[in-house]
Amino acid sequence: MKVYGSNICIDCRNFNHINKARNLNLEFIDITENTANLKEFLHLRDTSSVFENTRKNGGIGIPAFVLNDKITLDINEAFSWINQPPIDDDEILEWRE
After folding, report:
1. For a 10 Å CB count at each end of the chain, is N or C smaller?
2. Number of domains in the chain
3. Is the CA virtual torsion 76, 78, 79, 83 positive or negative?
4. How far apart are CA 70 and CA 95, in angstroms?
């Protein structure tokens, strides 16, 4: 599974923490690391209906989870694709204020 995100995003940092704690080794693509990563993500974001509400509301749409032809913005849905249980509150590293 590919996960598009940025280390400046709290939800992405939480994903990375869970990814490491569960020893999943899922591919994290930091869209702010270089323009190639950003272009790859923007193409996905601009062409997938999954991001329709995100685009309408001026959001970014990260973390975004991609497995084959499936795309979601929901970590628990993505984890269900790889037979992982939903995240637990005690797995969250950072909470929004």
Report:
1. C
2. 1
3. positive
4. 28
